Amino acid sequence: MTMTKTLSVSAIQNGTVIDHITSGQTLRIIHMLRLLHKKHKVTVGFNLPSKRMPLKDLIKIENHTLTNKEANEITVFAPEATINIIKNFEVVQKIITSLPPSISGIFICPNTLCITHHESIESFFHIEEQGRQIKLICKYCEKGFERKEMMVERKC
Ligand SMILES: [Zn+2]
Predict the structure, then answer these.
(1) pLDDT tens digits for 62-72?
(2) How far is the CA of 101 from the centre of ligand 1 (A)?
C-alpha cells in the first residue's frame, strides 16, 4: 500500500474511487447513481486541490464496483473524471470512459411544456459533443440543453 502526500480522504479497501470530478457536480452524480438510495458507504471530498484542474471533487464508494454504463454517464457531468476500481487498497482497474450517445431515465426535460412532464414517459436525450461543451437534445420536444441546465430526477 502506497500513501501519497496528496491523500485528503481516507483510503478504502475495496470499491470505486471517482476522482477529478468537476467541482460542483458531485451531488448530481450521487443522485444519478442513486448512491444514497442503495445504502452504499460513500465518502465525498469537495473542492480539493488538484494539479490537473482548479479544484476537484472526489467520491469513494465502498464495496461497490461501477458498471461501464454508470461510468460513462458520469462523463456527462464530469468530463475529466477518472474512475478507479480498488481491491485491497490497490488500483486494479482504471475504467476508460467515453461520452454515451444518449442518456435515458435520469434527467428531467428542462422544457416544462415537454410531453414528458404530462405523461409518464421515461426521459431520453441524445448527446452531441461540441468541443468541451455538450448538448443534450430531448427526443420528445427536440429542444437542446446544456449540461448546467439539466436536473436529475429525484428518485433516490
Ligand atoms: Zn423535452
Answers:
(1) 999 999 999 99
(2) 17
pLDDT for residue 130: 86
Ligand 1 mean position, distance from CA 22 (Å): 26
C-alpha cell at 7: 491523500
How many Å lie between the centroid of ligand 1 and the Cα of residue 117?
8
Encoded amino acid at 45, one letter: G
Query: Residue 55 and residue 48: Cα distance in Å, rounded?
Result: 6
Dist. CA 143 → ligand 1 center (Å): 6
Task: State which of 15-19, 24-28, 48-52 shows the largest mean pLDDT.
Answer: 15-19
pTM of the model: 0.82
Give the count of beta carbons closer than 10 Å to the beta carbon of residue 132: 7
Q: Rounded to whole angstroms, what are the CA distances from 114 to 90, 107, 124, 128, 139? A: 46, 13, 12, 20, 10
d(CA 131, CA 23): 19
